[in-house]
Amino acid sequence: MAAVLEGTARALLRRLAIEQAEARVPSLLATVLRDGEPVWSGARGQVEDAPPGPATQYRIGSITKTLVATTVMRLRDEGLVDLNDPLDKHLPGTAVGEVTIAQLLSHTAGLTAEPPGPWWERTAGVDADTLTASLDATAARHRPGRRYHYSNVGYALLGELVARHRGVPWDEAVRQEVLEPLGMRDTTPRPRAPHARGYAVHPYADVLLPEPEHDAVAMAPAGQLWSTLGDLGRWAAFLALGDQAVLSRATLAEMREPAAVDDADAWTGGYGLGVQLLRHRGRRLAGHGGSMPGFLSLVWADPADGTGVVILANATSGLRPAIGTDLLDILDAHEPAVPRAWRPAQCDTGLLELTGPWYWGPAPYVLRLRSGRDLTITPAGVHGRASRFAAREDGTWVGLEGYYAGETLRVVRRPDGTVSHLDLNTFVFTRAPYDPAAPVPGGVEDDGWR
């Protein structure tokens, strides 16, 4: 592990120590990553009269959902599932079969947060058939697609969808397809030694109450897994930088796109396809928090620079959510990242003729060639629509973000092979403002500019 400087390490440990003492958490672990690699780890408190270590397991709660969602996206990439499919196509017979796979992944299906019956997180679970039979019309709390409404039930249904497609329990599919390729061999559905015991801390006295722990069975995809600091560090690195053995970079980026916002007035927090999103001091973080009786956990990762943070604690409540971003802030303040050295890119130099200024009407834009055959179009002034474009095999490009996401960019050439203009989903970009030599929609007056 490439270590941070001594002063940075002390500042990080001090922040962790303050949290453990003031939040009164029996034990607390953290690791910080840079460029996808751990650069600092710390621990406070005790587990069974000894400091917790990197191999100590904690229950990770809803971080489980990100692993389930990754497996669902693998099914999508294989063509077995379409995100617009209704649940009934893959899991027929439920009372909520009209909701789509994408809505379940993004918590926009409108389903109830918790299943019928006693508090599922502290009681023994039921099988999938019993769970689905217990759902009726009241399980729909909102019109599908209307709003973000977190639903543990939705992920129970997604776990069963995975099991039916793979022919093995959901956790076995996750192990084979996600955990093993990433080297996360200490992540398991049930605890193994050494592991922390989950506790509730009395609100007005420094005493503990052991929390019960059960196999959640059908509800397990919503929060069953146990893991370690090292394994979750690998998961943070995956969320930031990806791994082609698990998901394509494009699919992972799709998961990190905001599908819903849970604080619409401020838009600091949102949800993608199985991952929580947070905007913090210029960072766009992706990850998830976890909460089960006796345990709290957190993973944040920044795909822009591979920075990440992992938090594990064995307390039902009390941990302040800012602990994760506070550690990232300390790292940035004490050791700001040094930009990577600029290097020439391997690109198609035959496209150099397309680079430079273009005009949409009178508005100036700049086209740049990136690696391979990829392009960017950005406004030359303050305002305008920018986007990246990925090359297609047919010689066109597809927009990857913003207004032009999914739209087609074409280079239109004259009979002699020279470039006439760019056609971006009917918008014509020309080399001069409203170039009369190009087929500008609506035409250009013969008298020209005056």
TrEMBL record:
Residues 20-323 form the Beta-lactamase-related domain. Its EC number is 3.-.-.-. It comes from Sphaerisporangium aureirubrum. It comes from the Bacteria. Transmembrane segments: none annotated. The keyword rRNA processing does not apply. This is Serine hydrolase domain-containing protein. GO terms for molecular function: hydrolase activity.
